[in-house]
Structure formats: C-alpha cells, structure tokens
Amino acid sequence: MLSNPTPHPTTRVDAAVTKIEAGLRDLREAGFTELSIGPERLAMLQRLEAAVRTIPSFGNTLIAIMQREFRCGELGDNNLANTLADALRITPHDARTRIRVADDLAARTTFSGAPQDPVMPNTAAAQADGAIGTEHVHVIREFFRHVPLHVDEETKELAETKLAAQARILRPDQLRTAANRILGYLNPDGPQPEAERARKRSFTLGPQGADLMTKGSFCVDPELRAYLEAAFAKYAKPGVLNPADEESTVEEEPAAETVKRDDRSLEKRQHDALTAILRDALASGTLGQHRGLPVTVVATMTVKELEDASGTAITGGGSLLPIRDVLRMARHARDYLALFDDDGRPIYLGRS
User: 251 partner at 20 to 30 Å CA-CA among 35, 70, 136, 289?
Assistant: First the structure.
C-alpha cells in the first residue's frame, strides 16, 4: 500500500521519496493501455525492473546507518533485526538477511569517521544502477561463502569485479554457472581443505509451522555423510520401518509384498529411518544424563489432555508435540512421570 504524500517535505530525502510516491500513484492511475505494441510493453517492463532493482540499494544505506547508530530500546526493541521485522512486517530471518547484505553492499566508515567503500563495491554499484537484482546479489554473496580461505584479497577483489560485470548481462542462473567456473579456477584440487569443511558444517532446524512441521537445512561433512549412508542403507530400504505397517523390523529382509505396498519416496523413507535411529538411541539409555536426568524427550501436558489424548504437549526444547504422538512414543521410551500442582510445584516424580 502506498503511503500518503507528505504535505510539506522537511528534507531533500523526504521530498525525493514524496515524488516517487506521487509518481507511482500517477502510474497506477494512467494504466498501460497507451502502450499498444509488444516492444513498448517489454521496454516498459525493463524500465520498471531497473527501478525496482535500485530500491534495495537505498535500503542498504539506511540499514547500515541505523546499525552504526543503533541504541538499545531507542526504537522499541533491543535488537535491530526485530525492530526492522516489526516496522517492515517481514520475518526476523528476512531482517537479518537484509542486515548482512547491507554489511556487504553499503558504504562504510572507519573508526575515525572517514568514508570507506563497500565490501563488494562493484556489486553495490551494479545494484544502485538497477542493473542487477536481489537474486544476482545472492549468487555473488553465495560465491564468496565457498571461496577457500587460502585465496588472497587481491584475487577476491578481481573475482568480485568480474562477477559484478557478468551480473549486468547474465540471468541469475547463468551467473551461477559463471561463478562456479571461477570457483573451479580458485580451487582446482576439488575437495575443500579440512579447515574449510569445518567452517561450513551446520545443521539447522527452522521454526515449527502452523501444521507443527519443521523445515531446516544442513551441510554435513564427509564423516557424517558416511554414517548416514550406512544407516540409510539398512533403515531406509523400501518396506522397512513403514509407519503404515503395524509391525516392521530391520532385523529381517522385508517380504516382497511389504516392499510392493511401500509407496513412500526416498526422502520419506530417510525421514522415517532417522526417527527410528534417534528413538532407539534415546530408549537405549546409553546417552547418559543431562542436568541430572536421563537424556530423553521431556513432554509437558495436563492430566486432562493426557486422558483425552488430544491437544499438544510442550517439549523441553519448547516445540509442540501432539498428545497422540506422545502416547505412541511412550511405547518405546523409558518413561518418567512428574506431577505438579496448580502453582507449578513438583509433588511426585517416579517411574510409571
């Protein structure tokens, strides 16, 4: 939604943005019926695309300034990312991404206040010109996350210059191909050194969605991949650990008819395999203790929810777990029962 124009702009920035807002309203009212032929419409789309691509560069500058001058609580929050998320109605993840992009593409200042070029000056200039979009920027920034640590700064600067120039004439998918080719020149030996692999390893769980499902991302090292391959070879075979089967075992080869009726994809079989492996590990009691208690799933619920087998429990990690899932999981777990009164004070703890 376009904001209302400011009656009396107080600064040059205010006046410039007011003109942009007025121009957008005029454009919306005028429509595009005057453009009667295809080339005219395509040219107009190109002009609009360039204008849209330019806008984030102004945002980068504003975010960089705000980050340098941010004071806790001044804008209603102690964190700039949360402040941006609330003010712009974007997710905190998106807000953090914009801050990181601003770190790379916005002009900087030294401790003495002297102006300094952006970390990626050519990419920043191409975005300011409206020649590249956010996806181009993503490809270039992703490229530098894969550059080996031993590459010197001069070579990195040359690579950034080359990629920014290529981004002005290539689509993002084509730019990614060019970036991979340059990365091959910088790292002709193929596999990354151990320090590089250690830097990249990660396993991230995202927030739970409205359906209580969770998406995530990972970048595993060769050792973890080898473990997963070995586990999946047995636990993720067709016909093994299928939740649709009343009984399933990994000790014997599944019958042909069991394999035939298993319509799960490889991704689903691997998901179910990980569930079984972690469940068995927790139930084995070999994981020791955490904060004085056995390592296990902690689920909190009311007696009524337990009796009705409905609603959701809260795990020790703060996620939501359907009561029916809790009851199913209890068949395999080492169960401990803790009772609390209405004030949250423990009144009983035992095995039951």
Answer: 289
Decide: 330 and 321 in contact? Cβ < 8 Å: no
User: Same domain for 170 and 247?
Assistant: no
Amino acid at 174: Q
What pLDDT shows up at residue 247?
77
Which residue do the tokens 């990994």 mark? Answer: 250
Q: Which residue range forms the structural domain that includes residue 254?
A: 202-350
Percentage of the chain exceeding pLDDT 70: 89
Classify residue 125 as exposed, middle or buried by CB count within 10 Å of its CB (0-12, 13-18, 19+): middle
Contacts of 98 (CB under 8 A, 6+ apart): 59, 60, 63, 84, 90
Same structural domain, 241 and 166: no
Mean pLDDT within 230-242: 91
Asked if the model's pLDDT at residue 139 lies above 70, the reply is: yes
**Backbone phi, then psi, for 214, in 5-degree steps?**
-130, 130
DSSP 241: S
Mean pLDDT of the region 228-238 = 92
* One domain, residues 302 and 249: yes
d(C-alpha 231, C-alpha 228), whole Å: 5
Here the tokens at position 106 are 């916005």
Query: Which residues are registered as beta bridge partners of 203?
Result: 218
Q: How many domains does the chain have?
A: 2
pLDDT at 351: 55
Query: How many H helices and E strands in the chain?
Result: 14, 11
Largest CA distance in the chain: 80
Q: Which residue has the tokens 């530098």?
A: 144
Contact 2, 25 (CB under 8 A): yes
Domain boundary among 136, 153, 186: 186
Using DSSP, state whether 48 is helix, strand or coil.
helix
Distance of CA 214 to the CA centre of its chain: 12
> What CA–CA distance (Å, rounded) separates 15 from 18?
5
CA angle, 227 then 233 then 234, to 5°: 105
Q: Is-contact 291 298, C-beta < 8 A? A: no
Please, what is the end-to-end C-alpha distance for the chain in angstroms?
58
Residues 286-335: pLDDT tens digits?
Answer: 888 877 777 777 788 777 777 788 888 888 888 888 888 887 877 766 65
**225 lies in the same domain as 328:** yes
